[in-house]
Write a structure and sequence with these properties.
This protein has four helices and no strands. Helix 3 packs antiparallel against helix 4. The chain is an all-alpha fold and 122 residues long. It starts with 15 loop residues before the first helix and ends in a 7-residue tail after the last helix. The protein is 67% helix and 0% strand.
Length: 122
Amino acid sequence: MTHQAPPSSPIAGPDPGRQLAQLREALRLIERIAGRPVSPESDTLDEAAHLSAAYDAALPIVQRRFEAIAAETAIWAAAGVEALLSATEGPPPRAAAERLAGQLDAALSDLAAILRPAPPSP
């Protein structure tokens, strides 16, 4: 009996550029609720392309770490947006939105840092 590797899935792997772009869109929505000036979109496509290329060049363990943290971030960001949008009584929850925007902005920076190559050691 011969052993063969299972056929590979025809579905493409995760697209980190798309994941980050979706999280950036969530950030823009949260910023609007917070009353903040909305982040510019101009650099988003360029950033997505760079991060996708860095993801493709990264070691598998780095890719898995990125995927896990991106998925976790997407879950809590979606829950936060849902909570903000369900607050229909009274004025918009600007303080909560401001805090969520800060947390999501920091998480996006952390995700990008995972894919940045480490500086060469001296």
